[in-house]
């Protein structure tokens, strides 16, 4: 489970007890701390105002990006769905509104990763690809709020893809309603398959908790909005320099 954490009067976020115990700066934002501005406000509240924020153009794939040092980063936002860094001062962030945000850190907090795992990314192996880019050390992970299995209906074709990939147990199909996928469980099992067993998992569903979360499926697919907001999940290597948090 994640802890509900009111960072300040206006900034609501969730945090992982394991990450917090390891001294790893991180947070799963809510609609009260949304977008890049919200992430930066959260960073300031967590004494990370000197950190450099890295984001992605997310494409629902399995590409992993490691930011270059300051001054060497190419122009534009990289197209990828995961970020990895062991450099103090880097703040990694991914954006979700129903997809699964996953944060990973080595147990000593020296290297961290932020992963955007939609259903396509999970099938493509974004979690295993990310862990393969990290140091071979014990790790801890946290899975943030996402769409619950009860709310994630899919086509029979998508359900068959998950079954073919070995996730039959995460496909819920009663033969009457449309199949549903337990994305949270798929992410957790993929982490375990890669050797990560220390995992905190959010229980919150982005659709069900409208007061705290945006949901594309609720607000756009089944609602009347043309677009909904996004939450940022972020993480930074454990600071060695007190000036960086």
Q: Can I get a quick summary?
A:
The chain has a single domain, classed as CNF1/YfiH-like putative cysteine hydrolases, CATH 3.60.140.
Layout of helices and strands, plus pairs?
Layout (H helix, E strand, L loop, with lengths): L2 E4 L5 E4 L1 H5 L4 E4 L5 H11 L6 E3 L9 E2 L16 E4 L4 E7 L3 E7 L5 E6 L1 H6 L1 H7 L6 E5 L12 H9 L6 E2 L7 E2 L1 H11 L4 E4 L14 H6 L9 E5 L10
Parallel strand pairs: 4-7, 5-6, 10-13
Antiparallel strand pairs: 1-2, 2-3, 3-14, 6-9, 7-14, 8-9, 8-10, 11-12
Description:
This protein is an alpha+beta fold and 245 residues long. The chain is 22% helix and 24% strand. It has a single domain (3-148, 196-244), classed as 4-Layer Sandwich (CNF1/YfiH-like putative cysteine hydrolases), CATH 3.60.140. The protein has helices at 17-21, 35-45, 119-124, 126-132, 156-164, 183-193, 216-221, and strands at residues 3-6, 12-15, 26-29, 52-54, 64-65, 82-85, 90-96, 100-106, 112-117, 139-143, 171-172, 180-181, 198-201, 231-235. The longest helix has 11 residues, at 35-45. The radius of gyration is 17 Å and the shape is globular.
**Would you identify the CATH H-level superfamily?**
CNF1/YfiH-like putative cysteine hydrolases
Question: Could you name the ranges where pLDDT drops below 50 across 5 or more consecutive residues?
Answer: none
Q: Within the CATH hierarchy, at the fold level, what is the topology?
A: CNF1/YfiH-like putative cysteine hydrolases
The first-to-last residue Cα distance is: 25 Å
Characterize the largest beta sheet: strand count, sense, and whether it forms a barrel.
6 strands, mixed
Tell me which oligomeric state these chains represent.
single chain
Number of helical runs?
7
CATH architecture assignment name: 4-Layer Sandwich
Task: Determine the fraction of residues in helical runs and give it as a percent range.
Answer: 10-25%
Q: Per the principal axes of the C-alpha atoms, what is the gross shape?
A: globular
- Beta-strand content: 15-25%
Structural class: alpha+beta
